């Protein structure tokens, strides 16, 4: 295999994020790093080779030789091996292919001729690619040593990114510039950023990307037509080289808008025929097309409800069309009444996904997977885990997270979300008794799902650093790593990311580790308290605005009055939402005595004088946490200041600028929230701090 | 004088508003309405003739003859006479020209040869035009009778409309479509609407129109350059025929943005020279150009503060440039700190205009006039009268009102503003003792101002009915009539408008009269209570949103807590704002005992249990007024329903549609405001009505 100029990396001058391949003197002169041999010819192994050549060149200062070695006789090499029946016996024996899933890999030190080779082997080119990125990580973090014996299989089959990119170039809930895919209602012509993007996400194991917004507007509806399919196929081609299947979000009303039919009824034979033909057309352009992502009957999007059909009817029709080609339908469960009357306290948006979908268990085709947001509301800084996880034994499920920080500071605030995601993944649903954590359900380990996994709304745009806030790169990295292996600890992921991104300086590590570890709870502490959520401005969702959604149609209320606040979601005398959980969780949430403090106001309406498990009253907790939150940001700034000179000036300054914005806005949050509740409750802060 | 096809009315197919000239059988066969003679040759008298021919033709069903009559010998005619030294002695004696101001007129019945002529005479063509519109009103309302002896002079010299139109076609705070002047950053090519607009506003005596937004953006800055001046001159030509002087809003930073200077310092000789040259250029295109309207140092607009100069320095520099041509500078006093900290209760936006301008009294040139908003804040449904009126004996002042319903229902709600304006005009400032009403000050009767009068932000756009809500036409009509004569009663203006617009049906009159008369107080009753204002959504200013501006930079707060609400603006222990009034008013406002109920929360922070003069507590007043307000709208709908068949179906349906919107939104206002204060105060409604 010979690389050419198209394999020259990187493709763009954007920030390399964690693929920096900084010069690493400890790697110089290691004989086995001087030569690479390749067994296999897939596009993915070619990408692996290109990455390895580039990375090793950057790190060691010399270009490794790529040798032809059909019989596996070279010694002291890095050997990239994709399984093939024709592989020499010796190589087949070296790699335990029988233990590998389709996307898994092994990395092994193999003593040979008095030296040592490194074997990176996978059943598929994707496996080799993932193994290569793993090897490069080891080199960068200084963990490359003799005697490597690594075998990895991904825990989740689907490891997806959802882009909310529009073809005009805007990104819904994007805080890092414009789309890398679209501009002015066309695909971008310069694909360098798309190529580097594919490298970035493949390096953390992402294997599916939906490139357009789930709210599919007029132009985007045409992505599945001849007008745009050649462009889509080009991007799919880039993705393919990195093992990524391309998905499209589709408009449920396409048969009407594109097909000229008068209906999109999923049981109408013309509609079914239209989608089948459409699938054939798409697969004609993209043989390995991933499938559709669908937001239907949600927030004014069309869907099967128009025709008195169920979500099962709707999704099965699409699934039927995609099935012959191996495509899947990712059907979002974010369905609720978005024209609620704020006066009505019986309707509870939190109940909606479960109420809509649970009764349909068993009615979905095998190539439909339900994509369920981590919580029952909408990506708040704190909410309980969706009770739908584990509630549908016979229906494929996957989890949806949000990397883009819509409600968590919009990449102006530092908010490392891995701790939040870990809490969700480790949440025990008790679906099949103790130990039925969400991570097992969405990995298809609890029930034998045909398709399952994790998806996330991504936070990248065309900003030079991809994510707006440089440190928000950690969220992108962390999501990919957790999707690969949800058992990875927060600490391990954080350590990897810091060392790859900022090098090995111990002080840098300590400061960043502490900032990242604290940031989510710091953000929570100065924003909306105790699980109640929202308190942001309508539309753009940046805060603070305590009553921003209080008298609205969105079903997102805090019900604060002069005595207390919170939403009563109990079975006893509330909306009955707690009954959607398995008994162990239901009982814990049902009583304010056992409900965790951080979720108290999500489940209960309590007086401001209610005493938390912490020993503080609710109102004093609000005051204290809001002062502490601001102090937390002040501490971030002080610690970050201490890194001046230890980090390149550009990134140091960029982060510092964001931290200063965060501090100003944290103070605003603190004062608005404290003042709001002081004015409403009339209860003084015990410590007499300034409240207005 | 012979009319040609360019004098054919109307110019457009837009709603004729009050210039309907409905067929009126009582006018048929009156001999003196069969012939018109003209003495004078001005453009304005030509417009008067065209209007009279059109109106009389429509009303009588036959085209009147236009006769040449140089010696004034025709009898039994309508005689339009513009004063001229060469007029025949007989005509000069008939009209008391010595009692007329430049814009005044007489309408007289003159017995002649056994018949009767009608004389419409003015010192100027404008006078004749205004007299002609008056005569046409008499014909339409059925008040044309023998023995007419009318003499009218306008009370206010300046009777202006301010358009907030942008050249992209949008209208800031416009609720009736797009601009009639601009589209896509050019002037509109079809001028029919502009011509009919000129007729409409001239018919109620408007003599000055600023065509562009006081927030002068990039394109509009170029209105005073050769790029647009020929277009401006064309519009000025249309206006001229109706006696209207065209004004432009200008960008204070023009010498920098257009002139390439590095400063706009009003004391810099290059800046002064630039403006002088610019004035010469403008007057080269438009010899009777009215002058500039300027919003400087306000809401991020540039101004003299940048150079440590005063508003007197800034306006005088422009005045100096315009003076040789008779132009004036209309300098807005809407200057305040729009980046206030909501935590700071000492800064008071209400004080700003007085604090900024009062110390400068006597420093302004004679062709500068300060334009002062009716209240100290910003066109709220209720606020006190600006204390700046009457506070500057040596500085020209005029009043600014808002016809467009920014804070009063945005032409979705019926809100007839004549009653509000009457209260302002009749407000006694006590500036020179009892009887120094605002109307006398702005008419230049209290102090001998060289320029003064009334301006208003207009409510028209390119909607077919001009004003969005058909009944909002009454506000446009009413403002013009009040600017002509502020002593006209609300009842008289309303009666005129109804009869001109909807004819003589007594039931129509009674219903409309009552709806218009009640509408402002009804709107007030279901929106923000007791003079506190705001409670709207930021940006678009449509409500309800009680805390919409509470934690903002705009200086517009209600300070509601669990005990009470309101802004303490007293001298005793508040912001000291009351001291800006003359003692009689200051004392009345200073004490909650004497402060009028409807302004209580503007001046005082009181407990919800404070008892009003009405005998109700503040909180019970809030509840009661909000329920009553909605009932008021329900009553409007019922009454309007009763007019079905008595009004053309199109207008009936249009108004009904708006009333239904108003009802839905009034209910939202009621429930949000009541719920907000119930939750905050914890005090139950005495009548146990639904509050949430």
Automatic annotation (TrEMBL), chains A, B:
Which reactions fall under this protein's catalytic activity? Answer: Hydrolysis of (1->2)-alpha-D-(4-O-methyl)glucuronosyl links in the main chain of hardwood xylans
Keywords, comma-separated and alphabetical: Carbohydrate metabolism, Glycosidase, Hydrolase, Polysaccharide degradation, Xylan degradation
Superkingdom, natural source: Bacteria
Residues forming the Glycosyl hydrolase family 67 catalytic domain are 139-466
| E.C. numbers | 3.2.1.131
Family annotation (InterPro entries) = A-glucoronidase_C_sf (IPR037054), GH (IPR017853), Glyco_hydro_67_aGlcAse (IPR011395), Glyco_hydro_67_aGlcAse_N (IPR005154), Glyco_hydro_67_C (IPR011099), Glyco_hydro_67_cat (IPR011100), Hex-like_dom2 (IPR029018)
Q: Which residues form the Alpha glucuronidase N-terminal domain?
A: 17-135
Keyword Hydrolase in record:
yes
Q: What class of enzyme is it?
A: hydrolase
Q: Report domain Glycosyl hydrolase family 67 C-terminal positions.
A: 467-689
Q: Which family does it belong to?
A: Belongs to the glycosyl hydrolase 67 family.
Its quaternary organisation is: Homodimer.
Q: Which PANTHER family match?
A: ALPHA-GLUCURONIDASE A
Task: Please report the name of this protein according to its UniProt entry.
Answer: Xylan alpha-1,2-glucuronidase
């Amino acid at each position: 295999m010979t690389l050419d100029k198209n394999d020259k990396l990187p493709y763009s001058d954007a920030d390399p994020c964690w693929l920096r391949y900084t010069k690493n003197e400890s790697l110089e002169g290691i004989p086995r790093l001087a030569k690479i041999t390749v067994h296999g010819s897939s596009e993915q192994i070619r990408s692996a080779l290109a990455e390895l050549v580039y990375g090793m060149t950057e790190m060691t200062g010399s270009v490794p030789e790529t040798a032809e070695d059909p019989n596996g006789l070279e010694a002291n090499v890095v050997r990239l091996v994709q399984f093939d029946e024709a592989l020499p016996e010796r190589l087949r024996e070296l790699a335990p292919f029988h233990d590998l899933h389709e996307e898994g890999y092994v990395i092994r030190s193999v003593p040979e001729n008095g030296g040592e080779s490194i074997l990176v082997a996978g059943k598929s080119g994707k496996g080799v690619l993932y193994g290569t990125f793993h090897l490069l990580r080891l080199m960068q973090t200084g963990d490359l040593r003799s005697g490597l014996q690594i075998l990895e299989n991904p825990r989740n089959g689907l490891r997806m990114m959802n882009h909310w990119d529009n073809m005009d170039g805007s990104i819904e809930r994007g805080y890092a510039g414009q789309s890398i895919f679209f501009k002015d209602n066309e695909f971008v012509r310069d694909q360098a950023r798309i190529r580097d993007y594919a490298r970035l996400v493949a390096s953390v194991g992402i294997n599916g990307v939906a490139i357009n917004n789930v709210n599919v507007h007029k132009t985007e509806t045409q992505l599945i037509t001849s007008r745009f399919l050649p462009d889509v196929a080009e991007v799919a081609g880039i993705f393919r080289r990195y093992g990524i299947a391309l998905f499209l979000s589709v408009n449920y009303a396409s048969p009407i808008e594109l097909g000229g039919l008068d209906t999109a009824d999923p049981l109408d034979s013309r509609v079914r025929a239209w989608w089948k033909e459409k699938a054939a057309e798409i697969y004609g352009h993209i043989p390995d097309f991933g499938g559709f992502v669908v937001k239907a009957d949600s927030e004014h999007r069309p869907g099967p409800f128009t025709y008195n059909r169920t979500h099962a009817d709707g999704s099965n029709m699409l699934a039927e069309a995609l099935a012959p080609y191996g495509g899947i339908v990712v059907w979002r469960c974010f369905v609720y009444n978005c024209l609620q009357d704020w006066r009505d306290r019986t309707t509870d948006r939190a109940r909606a996904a479960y109420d809509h979908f649970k009764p349909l268990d068993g009615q979905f085709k095998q190539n439909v997977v339900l994509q369920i947001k981590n919580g029952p509301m909408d990506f708040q800084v704190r909410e309980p885990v969706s009770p739908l996880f584990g509630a549908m034994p016979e229906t494929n499920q996957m989890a949806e997270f949000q990397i883009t920080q819509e409600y968590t500071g919009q990449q102006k605030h530092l908010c490392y979300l891995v701790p939040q995601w870990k809490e969700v993944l480790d949440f025990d649903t008790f679906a099949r008794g103790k130990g039925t954590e969400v991570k097992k359900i969405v990995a298809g380990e609890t029930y034998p799902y045909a398709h399952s996994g994790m998806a996330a709304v991504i936070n990248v745009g065309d900003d030079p650093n991809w994510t707006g806030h440089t440190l928000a790169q950690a969220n992108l990295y962390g999501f990919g790593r957790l999707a690969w292996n949800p058992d990875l600890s927060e600490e391990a992921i954080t350590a990897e990311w810091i060392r790859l991104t900022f090098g090995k300086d111990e002080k840098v590590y300590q400061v960043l580790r502490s900032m990242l570890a604290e940031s989510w709870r710091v953000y929570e502490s100065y924003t909306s308290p105790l699980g109640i959520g929202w308190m942001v401005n309508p539309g753009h969702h940046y805060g603070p605005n305590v009553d921003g959604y209080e008298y609205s149609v969105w079903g997102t209320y805090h019900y604060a009055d002069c005595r207390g606040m919170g939403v009563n979601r109990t079975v006893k005398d509330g909306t009955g939402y707690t009954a959607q959980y398995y008994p162990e969780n239901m009982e814990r949430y049902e009583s304010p005595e056992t409900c965790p403090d951080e979720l108290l106001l999500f489940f209960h309406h309590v007086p401001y004088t209610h005493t938390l498990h912490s020993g503080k009253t609710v109102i004093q907790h609000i005051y204290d946490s809001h002062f502490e939150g601001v102090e937390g940001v002040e501490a971030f700034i002080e610690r970050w200041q201490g890194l001046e000179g230890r980090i390149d000036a550009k990134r140091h300054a960029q982060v510092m600028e964001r931290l200063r914005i965060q501090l100003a806005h944290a103070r605003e949050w603190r004062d608005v929230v404290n003042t709001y509740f002081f004015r409403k409750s009339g209860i003084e802060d015990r410590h007499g701090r300034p409240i207005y």
